Amino acid sequence: MSCSMAMVSSPAFSPSRISISCKGPQETLSLNPSSPSASVSPCSRSCSSSPFRAWFQRAASGLREINVGVVGASSFPSGTAVDGTQSPPPLSSGGSGLLLKRKRPARISIPLTRTFTFVPEVTAVSREVEVESTQYAVCCKKGRNRMLMEDRHKATLDLNGDPKLAFFGIFDGHGGMRAAEFASENMGEFIVQVLSTTGASLEDVEQAIRIGYLKTDTEFLKEEADGGASCVTALVRDGNLVVSNAGDCRAVLSRAGKAEALTSDHRPSREDEKERIESLGGYVLCHRGTWRLQGTLAVSRGIGDSHLKQWVIPEPETKTINIEAECEFLILASDGLWDKVSNQEAVDTARAMLINGDGASSLSACKKLVDLSTARGSLDDISVMIVKLQEFV
């Protein structure tokens, strides 16, 4: 007698669908686990004492005892079922098409892979930058919650061989350092290029700065890089100070000890900026305690931000003053300072060291302001530059 087991087509295994056919005269064993015992028809007389009957009855009450499609002598220890009772005799494979021997899956061969080293596109600056000369000093410190320093600065003295012509800038990157890096390296040069072809009037200088900002934005967008940057710049020329900004970096003048803000932050919450954004189909909402353009960006002007370019414009606001004897120094700084330190407090802190103190250096004053903001919980990058204006008179 030869036996075979078959399963009725089903998307999942179900013991009620198992039948065993004994290739003898009208011998069929049908298993239904829903009943207390298996029903045998019509071979009950010839198969009632068969060891298959007791074995499959036990299997119906515990599915874990049957490995579907792999029933044979190799499925369990010789002579013993899973529950410790006597197992059925091994099934014959002859003619039934039943898989009798359990086969292990083929070993998976995983080839060795090469190890690649990640190289950033732009070399990160160190955690802290300190620079000092007789005319200026700057201190930049990476924020405690930042992986990379995104702030940049620029100071170019003796432009075109003129000791009274200089360019200074602080550039606060967001969404990466690429925009701040590009602006710091190119904006001053673009402005000087335009100045070399225009007149010497203040209107010409302000127009040259405007063109320099716009060209910086245009050229950066051509690189198809992510992120953007807020900018604040100061151009010293012929005894005049021309200050410009796009974003939330700020310029504050110490005029005989009194703080005078020369720029106004470009934030979506500013009434005129909000009206401009909404007139262009954008919106401003408060997210995590900060008013943001399209719910994401906390500034409304700057370089880059290609995905928001419809609303984030590079158009700078510019103010020109004559450097008088009471104009002591200029503070250029990112919002990492201004979010924690007021204009007057920044002037008082720096002035106490530079003028009323024991002759401390400009760099020490910059570091003092950076440390003050950090002590008050700033997690942002902090960049502070102090320009000694009387050195250019």
Content-based structural category: alpha+beta
N-end to C-end Cα span: 116 Å
Which fold name corresponds to the CATH topology of the largest domain? Phosphatase 2c, domain 1
Mean pLDDT across the residues is 78
| Residues in helices, as a percent range | 10-25%
**Overall tally of structural domains:** 3
Largest sheet: 6 strands, antiparallel
Query: Using DSSP, what is the number of strands?
Result: 18
Report the uncertain regions.
Answer: 1-49, 59-88, 91-97, 112-123
* Count of alpha and pi helical runs: 8
The rounded Rg comes to: 40 Å
CATH superfamily membership of the largest domain, which one? PPM-type phosphatase domain
Share of residues in strands: 25-35%
Tell me, briefly, the overall form.
Answer: globular
Succession of helices and strands? EEEEHHEEEEHHEEEEHEEEEEHHHE
- Give me the side-by-side strand order of the main sheet: 5-6-18-17-11-12
CATH architecture of the largest domain: 4-Layer Sandwich
- Overall CATH class of the largest domain: Alpha Beta
